[in-house]
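== Fold encoding ==
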Amino acid sequence: MSALEALIIALSGRQAANYIIMASGAVVIYDQILNFSQEVDLVWNRRWSIVTLLYFVARYCGSAAQLGFVAALVRINWTSME
């Protein structure tokens, strides 16, 4: 395998990973939008407790991390276009 072929394989793998990151970011946003009204009714209108705090951490820290990955990816792709 030549160096050019190895580079093409590496770049296509990176592109596939970028597509997966972007798709999962879209799924996270879509899920947040679909479930927000139920979430307000079932979670946020209750008294704060340890369960509410655990829900907040599980729901929003993972979502924030995923959206951070998407933002970093968009920033990297945007700067490489200049």
